[in-house]
Amino acid sequence: MKRWTKRLVRAVTSAVVGAGLALTASNALAASTEGACDVYVGHDQYTAFFWLDYHTSGSFDYPDTYRWRLLGTGLGNKNNVVARVKTVNTGGTDSVKHTYISGDNVPAGSSSRQISNVRVSRGSSMYGAYEFVFDRANDSDPRCTGRTKSV
């Protein structure tokens, strides 16, 4: 093999290995847990997809962002969102670590909300709980609730 070919193979191999290590480290630190709920009114379906993004550092999980996507027939721009970070309490009521309550102004489609200054011990199970109220013009507003898987 020619000298320039060997150098090229070494350079490509180093880049691929380095990228693989960076990707592995990144994936080990950031994650999300998700859930969805829907409600039917007559033949119309209203659906909410929900994600709780978080990262891990040391012995804590740090919730970073609530994300959601709202879909439905004739969905308006005055939807409501209540999102919470909760920890599992096997002996009773789960603890609330953070709450976001929107105004009457969440548009249809995708939106998100940042979470700050919250940490959950890795010894606890954490999850996202959510409630969505779907805005329908000149009609009652259906709602759905749910939770993500515990992490």
TrEMBL record:
Source organism of this protein record = Jiangella asiatica
Q: Which domain of life is it from?
A: Bacteria
Q: Which UniProt keywords apply?
A: Signal
Q: What is this protein called?
A: Secreted protein
Annotated signal sequence range: 1-30
